[in-house]
Structures are given as structure tokens and as C-alpha cells.
Description:
heterodimer, A: alpha/beta, 41% helix, B: alpha/beta, Aldehyde Dehydrogenase, Chain A, domain 2, 15 strands, 16% strand
Amino acid sequence: MNRLEVLKTYKIYIGGQFPRTESGRYYTIKDKKGNPIANICLSSRKDVRNAVVAARKAFGSWSERSAFNRGQIIYRIAEMLEGRKEQFIEELVKQGASQKSAIQEVNLAIDRIVYYAGWADKYQQVASSINPVSSSHFNFSVLEPMGVLGLVAPQNSSLIGLVSCIIPAITGGNTIVVIASQNHPLCSVTFAEVLNSSDVPGGVVNILTGNPHETAPILASHMDVNALVADDQDLLHLKSEAVENLKRIVPLNSNWMQKESQGLWFVTETQEIKTTWHPIENIGGASSSY
Amino acid sequence: MQERARELAVIETLDGGKPIRESRDIDVPLACNHFFYYAGWADKLEYAFPTRKVESLGVAGQIIPWNFPLLMAAWKIAPALAAGNTVVLKPAETTSLTALKLAEIIHDAGLPPGVVNIVTGFGDTGAAIVNHPDVNKIAFTGSTAVGKLIQKAIATTSKKATLELGGKSANIIFEDAPIDQAVEGIVNGIFFNQGHVCCAGSRLFVQESIAEKVIKKLKQRIETLYVGDPLDKNTDIGAINSKEQLQTIEKYIQIGLNEGAEIYQPQCTLPKKGFFYPPTLFSNVAQSNRIVQEEIFGPVLTIQTFRTIDEVIQKANNTPYGLAAGVWTDKGSRIFNLTTKLKAGVVWANTYNKFDPTSPFGGFKESGFGREGGLHGLSAYVKLS
């Protein structure tokens, strides 16, 4: 029985929708033998801007959700990814991975999401502080998400690099615009489908495929993006674009398959520190000695 | 430093023009305390960054401004040394003396030669530090414009940076605030150090129901401020730091008048010699006015009113800066509500311009990045892996 395989249209992910790039452009990625695997959207300046607008719109309610709820939603991403494991393994193999390493990568990606789901309601407790100032104030410093992040995803990885960068950022209440790996883009689009079915509100994660040389400078110079997360090497070309609104620069240099490539600091490095001086009533000088 | 506190205070005031009361009671003691605080961190770094390997960065290039010369030198040098770095520090060209006096103290204290180096000069000296290939980290406090130049200059290098830049901070007075205390807070917020303060409370927001009363009291209060000889212990507002800065202030006064704002200055006689400017209030201003949007860095306050809490949060956050904010209310829950929603690195409730070595200081948005003070101030000077 012969049937024609239904090929997937890989689209971009903006504000919880899957549009094609507004530019109508695409590029074709090929397997090792040179056979075409899929057509991929070649995102434009306008797509980047639309994605930033969506991310900004989503930021308020996402950052104000309870930490517990954000943790539940992130755990849900892991559940959904687990359910679509086979598809990711297949895509990784299509893009050149061995079956064994593909399985390893997908398993690690799922475990890493579960790991960060647990951090959602813990990082604040571990990383915030009460500061013993000399005056009559209750002085405390808490973490707050930086806002809208721009991420140039690790280019040599299709899934694990992407997951390792997106998840800690949204765990901390940021929203994010991602420029996916140009040569290994399949998992980024399929991961967007996972996000979309995981109670992650539209706009929290936005994923664009295409040519980072074209789109990353637009993201880096965008005045409504608060921080730029990218590989050390990519940053050398992008940092000067990020100056005008004093974006925070978060460099990445990790082998994402290692266990050390996860941790509290991946959450805290996209957080601001806010310090409050709260008055303490101090009348009469009564002492608490007993 | 403590033994030479009087000497340091007098030099600071002679050199920069700030009232002796401030250099004696605030700048110098805070600078001493900052060194004492960070000295204690030197052998505890592994507790500051649990589970991580902590290394020094190397040579820290540090460029500091003219508004708090000795205090900024302390904020820069102390955490750098505690984390094992060596330092090249450039004080501002108009206020280099206390940094040089500090070099003497450092020498007397027996710090090995080369650990702290102080070079004086203008912007080109600063640029030489920023562009030197063997400097691993840049720490800068100063204007947002220069901060951007620095970030651009090091963009293609792997140098780390912390930038503590300008501000246009909101000072918000609610109708339930203790009014007299709030008026003192407004005065301290904007006229402390002649308003040469990056976190100065230069945008006042008063709830409409009490606006008339607060503004009346504020006007009465600034009538009593004594502008004059910085070395006089009774002086409230000292000298403007330089002729250039006085010209900048005068330029902004003209801009404010051209924008149609209503100006109020008390009757006060200024010394004939030197650079002085009276405390100045601008009311009837719009959110879009340049005097509301841009940092003036002088004793100039803009006054706006508001009705609801949502309105004032929106207005307070409507600025490219995000360094500090003040909130005056009797209601604790309102303080927590505001501190959650204001986009600023430091929020003072029922106080303003308070500093402490344990309390991290630094901004959101275009007020820069990185924190100085507390455990957080160490992370600017370490490499973690």
C-alpha cells in the first residue's frame, strides 16, 4: 500500500500563533546526502519586531504569575515533550545525529525542563537577601526578571541548546524572542508546538527561524529588548548593536550535553536585583531583652 | 582612613564644593565602612557563590565621577581587592585630591606596590584605561552617554563591565504620608550634594489631594536653606562642582522656562565668588518636558501631581532610566505594592538617599547594570565557573 507522506510545513512562532514569515521567503535544509528535508521560514526584520511586541505584551502577566504556577506550566512542557519524543528523535536523526545520541539529547532536554520547573519557586529564596543595614530599616534585595530577552540560540545544536537557554529564562519570569539555529532548525519549530500545547501563554516564547546574520543585529539593537543572550563568539559582532538602550549582555559558552550546563545561575543571570528600604517603627527605644 | 577622617572631609569639601556636614557625616564614614565591610568578604568568597569555583578577574580599570570622589573610590576599590583583583583607578579631573590622599593611606597601610594604582586625568586618560588590552574589567560610574561610549568601545573584546549611570528618579508622596517628614525627604532627595547625585529624587509626584499643602510647606522649607561656603558647618547647599556644570544647570533652567514651566526660587543671597545655584522648583510641567525627562544633575526639582496609584506607577516608570525611587506613605502594604511595580534598582520608603555597605546599589534600564555594595557587589569582580 503506497501512500504519499504528508510533509510538515515548518512555520515560525509569534504570540502563540504559527504564521509564515511576513516576507514570504524560505530556505531549504538538506540532509547529509543533499536531499531536501524541509523548507524553513527565512524571517525578516518585521517578524523580529512583531515577536518583540508579542513578548512585551506577554511579560506583565507572565512575570506576575505565582512562582508555583510558572513551575507547573514548565513541568507541563516536559510532559508534552515526553509525549512527542519520537518526533524529536526522528528530526534529530534527519539533521545528522545518530539514533543513540538523538535519544540521549531528547531525554536530557526533558530532564532539564523538569529540573528548571523545580527551580521556579526556589531560586528567589536561595538568591535573594536581607541586608543588615545600620539604620532602622528592613532592607532586602529580591530578583526580578529583566523583561524581554533576545536569544540567539546555540547554532550547533537543534534541541538541547535551545531548551537549555529558553527554559531558565522563562522560569525566572522573562519573556523571550529566539533566533533558532540556522542549520538545525527543525526541533525549534516542533518545540514551539510543544510550548503551544503546554499552557505557556502566547508571547512568552517566540521562535524565529532564518539567517541569524540578518535577524540577530535587529534583535540586538531593538530598543524594547532588555537583554541579549548569545554565544560568546556571536556576541563579539552583536554587542556594539546592543549599546543604545544599555542591554544586559549574557554570554553563553557551554557544552549543553554536560550535566554542569544547568544550574541556579542560568536563572539568576537574567534577573535584576531590586533593593527596598522599608521603614521600621522605632519609637521609645524599648528593647526585646527578656 | 578613620584616623584621617577630618583631613579627608576637609579636602573633599575644598576640592569638590560639597557641604562639610555631608563629607564629614556621610561621604567619609561610608567610605571607611565600605572598606571594612568588603575586607570581611576576602576569605569567604566560596560562601558568596556556593557550588562554584571563584577566581579573580585580573586588572580592574575603574573610572569614577566628581560627585562623591572618595566614596566612589571606596565603592570601586574595596570589592575589587576583596576578590583578589588589582586596580587602576582614575578619579574625575575636577576632584582628584581625596583619591590621591587615599593612595597615601593605602601606601602607609602596607598594601603591596602595584595593587592599587591611581592615575589622574581627563577623558582621554579614561579612554586609555578602557582601551588597554591588558585590562580585564571596566567599572564606570558617570553619565549614561559616556557609559554607552564605554560599552561600545569594549564591545568587540571579552572585557567585563559594570556601569552605574544617570537617573531621573521619582519621589512619590501619598496623601497618608507624614507630611513634615516627607518634605524633609523631598529636600534631602533633590538638594543633597547640590543635586549632583545620580539617584537624586528629581521628579516629585504628589497626590493631588495634598499637593497644595506639600508645595506650600516645601517652599517655606527651602526659604530656610543656607546656600554658601561649603566649609561652613551650617551650609545646606554648597558649591556647584564646576563652571561647566553650572552652565548645564542654567541651560536646563532656560529650557524649563521655554517649555512653559512655572519656576520658584527662594530669596537667598549667593556668595559673589564661586559657582552657586539656588534650590529651584518647577511646577506645571508635562511628562514630555525635557526638564522632566533628562538628568540635570543640579538642585532642580520638577513637581507633578497624580490621583491614583496606577497613574503614578505609570508616570514614574515612564523614563529610560531606572536607578532609584522614593515612596512616602503610612501604609506598609502600599510600600510593597510600589516596590514590586517600580522599575528601579533601589526603592526607599519613607526615606531617601540612604546608603549602606551591605545594601546593593545600581540601576535598571539605561541607569546601567551591575550592583555595588553587599554580596551582590562582589559578582562584578569575580570569574565563576
